[in-house]
């Protein structure tokens, strides 16, 4: 395949329609071909167009830079720049190729174009969508009139309007997207090989990905450096007019009492002057002396507080709030939002604009007046200034329910996660057009001898927008009650009753780990990447083993610490927030037509200070042994390293170095010297046996391995030894395991009895997804709170009698389209061993090298066919 034309060429991308074509559009003869990205989007749009329209999906990009050596045309394979896919020697010309799985898609589109008299490119209205339309125009080379059709929502009104309001392809947006793609390729393909050589093969670096990893890794190092401080306080439980309330000791003998904010997190020492740090003895002294005095109100301060509703959602705020309120990751949020958009329920979900159209404002105000009344409706519609974030993407409307009348969540036909996300968007949009909430904030000081206590309260005078939307809860009415902290009507000089005084112990806390919400927040604030890419960035660093999720927290692995350290020491500007943010601004300037993309790429990649020469120069200076190693503060006698099989810890013992695996479940900041020492001791001496199994006489150990703690029956002395091992149940710590518990675990899976209906054994066991009961391949999970050791045959039979709960609640990662045999939808699902394609009851794992983003229907069909035709393996009968 010849090298494809770049967007930098001066070819006219879109042909102006002729008078004849305009007549055809307005109802004349001839078919019109409309091309969109996905089958779902095509299906929705077909409902709004007549029989004269053919709506087809291009399944995303029809061509791209080569993804592997196989896709590089033979004539270019020996070129020094071939692996990059970008001719850095000739104007940074990209080598575009049509992937094998897209050849059939392109042929179908060309065949359909033969039936049409007009072509409408209806891809998304952003840089990515503009780029897809341009690539389609270059690949299809239409000889019929071609128009760029754009819309912000998939409703009948929006589609009809967009048909009559077409435009040419915006080449500035295309160039900006092309420059971004080339820049990401140059950075990733230049730095990643360096990491392969110096740390471990298969790791990757990325222009934005590496900065995200650095942020998470540095937060973990801050936690490691953190020095804990202890302090005491005194709580007063008071009562007046029958209303109980709590006060906190604020000062003693005229000195303010120290709180957590007064301590230095790096040293653990007091950082604020003229404050008093109480210890336990001093706190009890305050308790004794204050309890003997009357409690008198010396100050009451009341002030009204007005809260404005938050702006409608943009991409980043939707990801943050869905993470906080619904527990969704950024990737899942965007996948579900994509489906809502493609099904015509919400407006386009990649936007930095808080702007609402007049029809959206009218729909919201109509609903507010009808459901809540006039007092909840402001005199004038609210207008929010679009966020001026660094590197803001093209302006669209905010994310809101689609249409001129919002479909209520109850009438949407949705369920599960899609319903919850739609409801979140719906409530936020409606609330944005409601009046302020009015609150009364009360603060008071109460004196008892030399002690002064403070208490604060808040009451809601008028809920305003809080009736519809309260951040942090799905139940606004319940949340309103929880938000209120009522104080009695206190008067200066009045006395209040004392219920009790209680000394309280406190410790300062290390900086919190990032969650997906807080990471998105800081990346947006610093202008790192674009909100529309945050979901894929976070997904990538989790998939590549740089980060794991612990609850909602993003915990870096030792691989993340090591790679971040290497880049920070040897290629600091490529993980620098300011440098990366400046790249985004340059790409925006290209999109505005004010910067030449070729000149910019040259300045980044070439020259003495360019990326290539910098990486080449630093490669010689990096010692692979040192690159794989990191020292942690407070653990100086240990060396933590990353190897082929994960992280391990080493230390000198009796003149020799001893190393032991670090369990993958361990967080770097939570490792203590005692924990590391225990791993080393187990490696040298082996663990002390808890005792011996009554049946076999073999020793039973509690050990820790790469995948966490487990019990082991017998010794692993020889190369062929395979002692039985059972992981500890979730929540059980190694120190809690005694010999009776260990023996029960070693028995698993345990036969409880024989099923009277099928004549097969009923067993209880512990698997990857927790404890279960099973009979003849029919599994049931043991509910949380139910100990697997307490499950009897009768209980197991009751569980097996219950209908099996499917995992259908999980949303597909991607919809590929209808299977040609039975028209059932083929989906990409997320499973315990990674993503897979699903067609009816047939599942097939993605082959190596394929990702959720690259898999297509054409690639999936042979995988499913092979799986469907494969004979089922016969189980070997035991003698």
Give a structural overview.
The two termini are 59 Å apart. It contains 24 helices and 32 strands. It is of the alpha+beta class and 879 residues long. The strands form 8 sheets. The protein has a 6-stranded antiparallel beta barrel with strand order 7-8-13-12-11-14. A 4-stranded parallel sheet has the order 2-1-5-6, sandwiched between helices. The model is unreliable at 9-28, 388-395, 473-482 and 872-879 (pLDDT under 50). α4 packs across α6, α6 packs antiparallel against α17 (577-591) and α6 packs parallel to α19. The chain is globular, with a radius of gyration of 32 Å. β31 and β32 (842-845) form a beta hairpin.
List keywords for this structure.
879 residues, single chain, 32 strands, four-stranded parallel sheet, 22% strand, six-stranded antiparallel barrel, alpha+beta, 32% helix
Topology:
Layout: H1 19-25, E1 31-36, H2 39-46, E2 53-57, E3 86-87, E4 93-94, H3 103-114, E5 116-121, H4 127-140, E6 146-148, H5 156-163, H6 171-198, H7 209-225, E7 230-240, E8 243-252, E9 255-257, E10 275-276, H8 280-290, E11 295-307, H9 315-326, H10 330-342, H11 358-371, H12 416-431, E12 437-448, E13 451-462, H13 476-483, E14 495-507, H14 516-526, H15 534-543, E15 547-550, E16 553-556, H16 558-570, H17 577-591, H18 597-605, H19 611-619, H20 624-627, E17 629-630, E18 639-643, E19 646-653, E20 656-661, H21 673-685, E21 691-692, E22 699-705, E23 708-713, E24 724-727, H22 739-746, E25 750-754, E26 761-767, E27 770-775, E28 778-781, H23 793-801, E29 814-818, E30 825-831, E31 834-839, E32 842-845, H24 857-869
Parallel strand pairs: 1-2, 1-5, 5-6, 9-10
Antiparallel strand pairs: 3-4, 7-8, 7-14, 8-9, 8-13, 11-12, 11-14, 12-13, 15-16, 17-18, 18-19, 19-20, 21-22, 22-23, 23-24, 25-26, 26-27, 27-28, 29-30, 30-31, 31-32
């Amino acid at each position: 395949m010849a090298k494809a034309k770049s967007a930098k060429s001066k070819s006219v991308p879109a042909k102006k329609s002729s008078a004849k074509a305009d007549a055809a559009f307005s109802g004349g003869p001839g078919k019109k071909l409309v091309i969109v990205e996905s089958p779902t989007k095509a299906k929705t749009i077909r409902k709004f167009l007549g029989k004269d329209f053919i709506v087809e999906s291009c399944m995303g990009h029809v061509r791209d830079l080569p993804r592997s050596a196989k896709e590089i045309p033979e004539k270019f394979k020996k070129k020094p720049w071939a692996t990059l896919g970008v001719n850095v020697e000739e104007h940074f010309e990209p080598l575009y190729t049509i992937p094998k799985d897209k050849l059939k898609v392109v042929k179908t589109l060309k065949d359909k174009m033969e039936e049409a008299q007009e072509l409408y490119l209806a891809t998304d209205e952003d840089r990515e969508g503009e780029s897809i339309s341009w690539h389609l125009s270059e690949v299809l080379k239409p000889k019929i009139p071609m128009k760029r059709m754009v819309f912000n929502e998939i409703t009948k009104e929006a589609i009809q309007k967009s048909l009559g309001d077409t435009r040419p392809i915006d080449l500035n947006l295309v160039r900006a997207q092309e420059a971004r793609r080339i820049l990401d390729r140059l950075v990733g393909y230049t730095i990643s090989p360096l990491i392969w050589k110096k740390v471990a093969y298969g790791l990757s670096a990325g222009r934005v990905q590496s900065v995200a990893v650095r942020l998470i890794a540095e937060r973990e190092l801050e936690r490691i450096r953190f020095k804990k401080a202890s302090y005491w306080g005194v709580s007063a439980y008071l009562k007046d007019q029958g209303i109980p309330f709590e006060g906190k000791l604020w000062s003693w003998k005229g000195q303010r009492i120290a709180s957590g904010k007064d301590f230095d997190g790096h040293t653990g020492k007091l950082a604020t002057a003229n404050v008093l740090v109480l210890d336990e003895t001093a706190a009890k002294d305050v308790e004794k002396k204050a309890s003997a005095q009357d409690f008198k109100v010396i100050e009451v301060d009341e002030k009204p507080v007005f809260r404005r509703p938050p702006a409608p959602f943009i991409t980043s705020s939707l990801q943050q709030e869905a993470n906080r309120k619904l527990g969704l990751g950024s990737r899942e949020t965007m996948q579900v939002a994509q489906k809502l958009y493609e099904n015509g329920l919400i407006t386009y979900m990649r936007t930095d604009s808080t702007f609402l159209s007049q029809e959206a404002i009218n729909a919201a105000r109509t609903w507010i007046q009808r459901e809540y009344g006039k007092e909840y409706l402001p005199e004038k519609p609210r207008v929010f200034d679009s966020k001026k974030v660094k590197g803001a993407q093209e302006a669209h409307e905010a994310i809101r329910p689609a249409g001129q009348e919002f479909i209520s969540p109850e009438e949407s036909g949705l369920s599960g996660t899609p319903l919850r996300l739609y409801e979140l968007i719906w409530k936020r949009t409606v609330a944005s057009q409601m009046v302020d909430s009015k609150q009364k904030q009360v603060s008071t000081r109460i004196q008892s001898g030399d002690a002064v206590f403070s208490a604060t309260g808040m009451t809601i005078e008028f809920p305003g927008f809080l009736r519809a939307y309260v951040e942090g809860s799905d139940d606004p009415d319940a949340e309103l009650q929880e938000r209120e902290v009522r104080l009695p009507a206190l008067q200066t000089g009045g006395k209040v009753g004392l219920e009790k005084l209680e000394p309280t112990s406190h410790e300062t806390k290390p900086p919190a780990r990032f969650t997906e919400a807080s990471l998105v927040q800081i990346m947006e604030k610093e202008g790192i990447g674009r909100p529309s890419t945050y979901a894929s960035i976070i997904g990538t660093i989790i998939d590549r083993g740089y980060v794991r999720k612990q609850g909602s927290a993003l915990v870096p692995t030792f691989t993340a610490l090591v790679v971040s350290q290497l880049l920070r020491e040897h290629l600091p500007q490529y993980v620098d927030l300011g440098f990366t943010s400046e790249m985004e601004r340059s790409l925006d300037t290209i999109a505005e037509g004010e910067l030449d993309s070729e000149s910019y790429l040259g300045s980044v990649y070439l020259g003495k200070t360019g990326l290539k020469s910098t990486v080449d120069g630093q490669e010689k200076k990096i010692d692979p042994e040192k690159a794989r190693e990191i020292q942690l503060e407070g653990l100086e006698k240990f060396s933590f390293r990353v190897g082929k099989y994960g992280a391990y810890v080493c230390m000198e013992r009796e003149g020799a170095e001893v190393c032991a695996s670090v369990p993958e479940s361990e967080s770097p900041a939570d490792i203590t010297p005692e924990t590391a020492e225990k791993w080393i001791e187990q490696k040298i001496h082996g663990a002390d046996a808890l005792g011996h199994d009554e049946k076999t006489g073999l020793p039973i150990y509690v050990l820790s391995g790469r995948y966490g703690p487990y019990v082991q029956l017998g010794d692993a002395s020889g190369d062929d030894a395979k002692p039985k091992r059972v992981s500890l149940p979730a929540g059980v710590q190694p120190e809690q395991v005694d010999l009776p518990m260990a023996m029960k675990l070693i028995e698993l899976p345990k036969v409880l009895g024989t099923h009277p209906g099928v004549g097969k054994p009923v067993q209880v066991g512990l698997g990857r997804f927790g404890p279960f009961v099973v009979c003849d391949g029919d599994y049931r999970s043991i509910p949380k709170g139910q100990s697997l050791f307490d499950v009897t045959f009768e209980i197991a039979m009751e569980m097996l009698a219950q209908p099996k709960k499917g995992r259908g609640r999980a949303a597909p990662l991607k919809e590929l389209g209808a299977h040609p045999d039975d028209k059932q939808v083929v989906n990409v699902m997320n499973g315990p061993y990674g993503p897979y394609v699903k067609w009816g009851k047939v599942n097939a794992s993605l082959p190596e090298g394929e990702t959720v983003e690259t898999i297509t229907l054409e690639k999936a069909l042979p995988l499913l066919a092979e799986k469907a035709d494969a004979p089922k393996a016969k189980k070997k009968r035991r003698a």
